[in-house]
Design brief:
Strand order of the largest sheet of chain A: 2-5-4
Radius of gyration of chain B: 21 Å
Oligomer: heterodimer
Bound molecules: flavin-adenine dinucleotide
Structural class of chain A: mainly alpha
Number of helices of chain B: 11
Shape of chain B: globular
Radius of gyration of chain A: 19 Å
Low-confidence stretches of chain B: none
Number of strands of chain A: 7
Order of helices and strands of chain A: HHHHHEEEEEHEEHHHH
Mean pLDDT of chain A: 96
Distance between the termini of chain B: 41 Å
Largest sheet of chain B: 4 strands, mixed
Largest interface: A-B, 57 and 56 residues
Helix content of chain A: 55-70%
Number of helices of chain A: 10
Helix content of chain B: 40-55%
Strand order of the largest sheet of chain B: 1-4-5-8
Mean pLDDT of chain B: 93
Number of strands of chain B: 8
Structural class of chain B: alpha+beta
Chain lengths: 292, 377
């Protein structure tokens, strides 16, 4: 058993992180917030060229030929930097929708909760988007439409969404720790106060537990493992963003500081995979199945 | 990144499973938790069987993955817990193996492996709990002996122990982490008084230990004089690193039993309860994955458990308490009946966020040693 990243997996993660740092740094994030609803097509094609969408497509079909663990690592990085766009939908469409693999086409999916992300920007919509109505999305970086007909969700989409949540949770913890070390009150860094320190410790505990669950689900692709990953990653991302906000005090409540974007995106992602209660119900039934 | 096992590991698992299938039906009945001599005999008897079958040193010599398989399979098969062997096998033994001299290893390790001697851990004192380095039990050098006076508390298994891994202060003038020494104290030495303390579960577990001019040979010192704090950190990393692995497997079994019971008594129809059990399933599945992650990490880093154990312990001890709270919900008013299953376990689980470093202390460790936040004042 070698349940740790391989050299190749580390290299892949570093490569994606480097690409995203170069192409989607803080400036780009701010610019995206200032122009809501618009997708950077050049970046989309660059992601396509780097193999982001074709990652799991077999080599003989023009893909990179890697597996779920690698895809999970790439999506974790995307979640870290809040990369916008229907990434999961387009990734799943690679090999099925022309242009998706190369990043030439933007693909939107009708989701499990009857919501569609990035409908207006999409070249192709999968599922029945008839009768769609735009809503005022809570997340400035995720335009949303409501449609009458919901659609079953692919377990791989659930897992990749969990990977994005994991990346967001990791980032929220890093931001909180950085701030807790630098910000001084009462003549000492606030990270020296236990009330703050323990918030940070709990963020790490939630994140690392979620990480083990997400990576394991990537290895097994087992439905119960995927439901597990989803519940743990949702919790780590949503609570992580909230605690990060708290650690930042007044600055945490500003539009300027990025933590609200993490929280809002985390909320959007919790709905992408369908109701959490359905995952809980399936995992409850799983207990009965195991005992019989 | 994989979860696959090597052929040797699979072979080890199959052999162990077969052996467990043969030996477990031949064990004597489990003694009551409030009866010490019986518990000691039972726990040591099990260790002896492990020894005879060649599994005794799995906690020390096997690779982390083999140890994981051992703990997984023994727990799944319902084999006895290490019990009274805990300190010997998981604290003192590994410490002596790592820090002791050749003579010390030859004297103390074989009887631990053979299930002949029980060890207890004399670290905590009435005025030194979380702040362990504040301990005051004094050891004065007199010829070839240390003369020890003071008191210890919460000493698990002290009533039935042959040896105590004892922390004493040898240099009261030094800074508090610098004047501590690690000694192996024979529990039959004159001057030792053991006063049992009953736990809130009503069980025999720990005791107060009073030490009045107890003579401990200098030859029983492990590590250098005044270097006991470093030696202690070795012991604690073992405790936090590997001690709880089998219990995650046990919790997953309990959870399945809870679901079956809820189906039986009709509470399964309550969606709130059902979802709570579903969430606990996610929780313990994830904790099992975290265990596998930590074990793989230990395997790659040469076997020493890291601070990742604190992350695990924090989450696990909390989850275990939630598990038994859920059990109480499944049982309803029956949860007030001590003769019902899980009711005593619910009481025992209350110690999980206290023993082996409280959750608050674990959070300090995670925040300071992993996240690099400033030390508290
Ligand atoms: C079942 C059981 C078995 C045990 N077995 C043994 C054994 O065999 N040998 C042994 O030596 N000891 C043993 N212990 C003792 C155990 O290690 C201590 O109880 C534990 O370390 C806490 O110390 P304390 O009880 O003195 O509590 P205290 O240290 O007084 O703590 C009281 C409260 O204050 C909090 N607190 C203390 N310091 C801080 C801080 N710096 N920051 C934030 N909060 C703080 C604690 O978290 C706790 O909530 C056992 C305990 C139990 C419950």
């Amino acid at each position: 058993m070698r349940f740790q990243l391989t050299e190749d997996q580390r290299a892949l993660r570093a490569g994606v992180r480097e690409l995203l740092a170069r192409r989607f740094g803080r400036e780009a994030l701010r610019a995206a917030v200032d122009e809501p609803g618009r997708l950077d097509r050049a970046l989309w094609r660059e992601l396509g060229a780097a193999g982001f969408f074709a990652l799991r497509l077999p080599e003989e079909r023009g893909g990179v030929g890697l597996g779920l663990p690698e895809a999970v690592l790439a999506f974790e990085e995307a979640g870290r930097v809040l990369l916008p766009g229907p990434l999961v939908a387009t990734h799943l469409a690679a090999g099925e929708v022309p242009g998706a693999a190369a990043g030439e086409a933007v693909v939107a999916d009708v989701g499990a909760c009857g919501l569609v992300e990035w409908l207006a920007e999409a070249d192709v919509v999968r599922g029945d988007a008839a009768g769609s109505v735009p809503l005022r999305s809570v997340d400035p970086l995720t335009p949303l439409h409501r449609v009458p007909a919901a659609r079953g969700v692919d377990p791989v989409a659930v897992l990749l969404t969990a990977a994005e949540q994991l990346g967001g949770a990791t980032r929220a913890c890093e931001l909180a720790v950085q701030h807790a070390r630098a910000r001084e009150q009462f003549g000492q860094p606030i990270g020296g106060f236990q009330a703050v320190k323990h918030l940070c410790a709990d963020m790490l505990v939630r994140t690392e537990t979620a990480r083990a669950a997400v990576y394991a689900a990537a290895v097994t692709a087992d439905p119960a493992d995927i439901d597990t990953a989803r519940l743990l990653a949702d919790e780590a991302a949503v609570r992580g963003a909230r605690d990060c906000l708290q650690v930042h005090g007044g600055m945490g409540f500003t539009w300027e500081f990025e933590v609200h974007l993490h929280l809002k995106r985390a909320w959007v992602r919790t709905h992408r995979a369908g109701d959490a209660t359905e995952s809980e119900e399936r995992l409850a039934v799983d207990l009965l199945a195991q005992s019989s | 990144m994989d979860l696959a096992h090597t052929p040797e590991e699979d072979e080890f698992r199959a052999r162990l499973r077969k052996w467990l299938g043969e030996v477990l039906p031949t064990l004597p009945p489990k003694p009551s938790p409030d009866e010490w001599p019986g518990r000691r005999a039972y726990d040591l008897g099990w260790q002896r069987r492990l020894y005879d079958a060649g599994y005794a040193d799995v906690h020390w010599d096997a690779s982390p993955t083999m140890r994981l398989i051992f703990l997984e399979e023994t727990e799944k098969a319902g084999a006895p817990y290490v019990g009274a062997g805990f300190v010997g096998l998981l604290h003192a033994g590994p410490t002596i193996a790592a820090e002791g001299t050749a003579e010390q290893r030859a004297r103390w390790l074989p009887p631990i492996l053979r299930g002949e001697e029980v060890w207890c851990q004399g670290f905590s004192e009435p005025d030194a709990g979380s702040d362990l380095a504040a301990l005051r039990t004094r050891a004065r050098r007199d010829g070839d002996d240390y003369v020890v006076t003071g008191s210890k508390i919460w000493t698990s298994h002290a009533e039935v122990a042959d040896w105590c891994e004892l922390l004493v202060r040898t240099d009261p003038a030094a800074a508090k982490h610098r004047g501590i020494t690690w000694l192996a104290m024979p529990m039959d030495a004159p001057g030792i008084t053991v006063r049992p303390l009953k736990t809130l579960a009503g069980s025999a577990e720990f005791a107060e230990v009073f030490l009045d001019e107890v003579r401990v040979p200098v030859a029983n010192r492990v590590g250098d004089e005044n270097d006991g704090w470093r030696v202690t950190m070795v012991t604690l990393s073992f405790e936090r690193g590997t001690a709880f692995v089998g219990e995650v497997v046990a919790c997953r079994r309990v959870l399945r039993e809870l679901a079956a019971e809820a189906r039986e008594n009709g509470r399964w129809d309550d969606p709130v309860l059902r979802r709570r059990l579903g969430r606990l399933n996610a929780e313990f599945r994830a904790l099992w994955r975290l265990t596998q992650w930590n074990v793989s990490e230990a395997e790659l880093s040469g076997g020493m458990p890291g601070v990742g154990g604190s992350v695990f312990k924090l989450r696990y001890s909390h989850a275990r308490q939630e598990l038994y709270d859920a059990a109480a919900d499944v049982l309803g008013p029956e949860s007030l009946d001590l003769d019902r299953p899980w009711v005593l376990d619910r009481l025992s689980s209350l110690s999980y966020t206290i023993a082996a470093g409280t959750s608050q202390i674990q959070r300090n460790i995670v925040a300071e040693r992993i996240l690099g936040l400033p030390k508290g004042r």
